[in-house]
């Protein structure tokens, strides 16, 4: 083969190679552009005002997308948002035991309906803050506080066991929850950020289902080596349905209270009384569970040193 023919073949092969690289590069750019568009639309749709008592403060109201790459970003973005909301709110310096619950309603003039409920709880545990955090985390994984018939929990990342995603179904209440929880370990405290997702494209809301949604965070703060401050706050919106906002009558049925025949505000008061009673009972159960777990850890550590 003549030299000029060899050079011609070499140039042609180079052009084919470069053309292939250019095609692959354009395809990659197109995929990334579509992915970024998806994320931008998702972020824009996720930032809405919180309609509870804090008025215009932006809170979480997000959707997990089905796209695998966007979903991975969503796991971290959503929990980071809850975490950064919790951080400034958790440093008020008050360490007294405290419990508060507020039911938020809206009156349209023609009807009264429940917007959501806010809860706050603070107490002290006697144990190292890491031990307290580990007890709470173990209980979250085991769902010992959930009265559910079916629980599916996954760890989305094989190399990161600080993120959990759970689907919880309660046949008694008819609820279907998508719960995303992430643990943040810091030198003197642990923060648990939780999002009850309003929407998940992989698990859309079904007819007759109720989807509780909102946000919660738990702070486990070191006071001394053996004294730990526990503080949690949550904002939970009225459950979503495929038929629109829940009626007051359906809320009353969920709380197992009677609807007043003429006065909606009396029905709301009954619902609030039921929620407060359940909140107190749940906190008592959870605190006992944490103390029992701390005692088991202490006994195990004492046995291993003997």
| Number of helical segments with 4 or more residues | 5
CATH superfamily of the largest domain: START domain
| Uncertain runs | 47-51, 54-59
Look at the structure and give the CATH class of the largest domain: Alpha Beta
Residue share in helix? 40-55%
- Number-wise, the strands total 12
Q: Mind describing the biggest β-sheet?
A: 8 strands, antiparallel
Domain unit count: 2
CATH architecture of the largest domain: 2-Layer Sandwich
Q: Structural class of the helix and strand makeup?
A: alpha+beta
CATH topology annotation of the largest domain: Alpha-D-Glucose-1,6-Bisphosphate, Chain A, domain 4
Widest beta sheet: strand line-up: 4-5-12-11-9-8-7-6
Order of helices and strands: HEEEHEEHEEEEEEEHH
Shape: globular
**Beta-strand percent range:** 25-35%
Could you tell me the mean pLDDT? Answer: 82
Cα separation of the termini: 86 Å
Summarize the structure.
It comes from Aphanomyces stellatus. This protein has helices at residues 3-46, 68-89, 129-142, 248-254, 264-305, and strands spanning 47-49, 58-60, 63-64, 98-107, 112-125, 150-154, 163-170, 175-186, 189-196, 199-200, 211-224, 227-240. With 306 residues, it is of the alpha+beta class.
């Amino acid at each position: 083969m003549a030299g000029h023919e060899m050079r011609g073949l070499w140039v042609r092969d180079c052009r084919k190679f470069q053309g292939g690289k250019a095609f692959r590069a354009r395809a990659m750019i197109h995929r990334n552009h579509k992915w970024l568009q998806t994320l931008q639309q998702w972020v824009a749709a996720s930032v809405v005002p919180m309609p509870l008592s804090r008025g215009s403060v932006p809170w979480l109201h997000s959707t997990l997308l089905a796209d695998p790459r966007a979903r991975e970003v969503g796991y971290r973005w959503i929990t980071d948002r809850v975490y950064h909301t919790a951080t400034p709110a958790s440093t008020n310096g008050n360490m007294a035991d405290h419990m508060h619950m507020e039911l938020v309603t809206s009156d349209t003039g023609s009807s009264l309906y429940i917007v959501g409920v806010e809860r706050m709880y603070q107490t002290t545990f006697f144990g190292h803050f890491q031990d307290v955090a580990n007890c709470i985390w173990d209980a979250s994984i085991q769902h010992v506080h959930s009265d559910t018939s079916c629980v599916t929990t996954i760890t989305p990342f094989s190399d990161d066991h600080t993120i959990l995603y759970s689907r919880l179904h309660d046949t008694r209440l008819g609820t279907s929850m998508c719960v995303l929880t992430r643990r943040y370990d810091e030198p003197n405290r642990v923060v648990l950020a939780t999002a009850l997702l309003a929407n998940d494209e992989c698990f859309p809301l079904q007819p007759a289902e109720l989807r509780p949604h909102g946000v919660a965070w738990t702070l486990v703060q070191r006071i001394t080596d053996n004294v730990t401050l526990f503080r949690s706050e949550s904002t939970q919106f009225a459950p979503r349905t495929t038929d629109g906002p829940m009626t007051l009558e359906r809320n009353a049925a969920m709380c197992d209270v009677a609807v007043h025949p003429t006065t909606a505000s009396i029905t709301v008061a009954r619902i609030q009384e039921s929620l407060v009673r359940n909140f107190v009972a749940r906190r008592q159960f959870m605190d006992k569970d944490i103390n029992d777990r701390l005692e088991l850890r202490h006994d195990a550590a004492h046995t291993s040193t003997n």
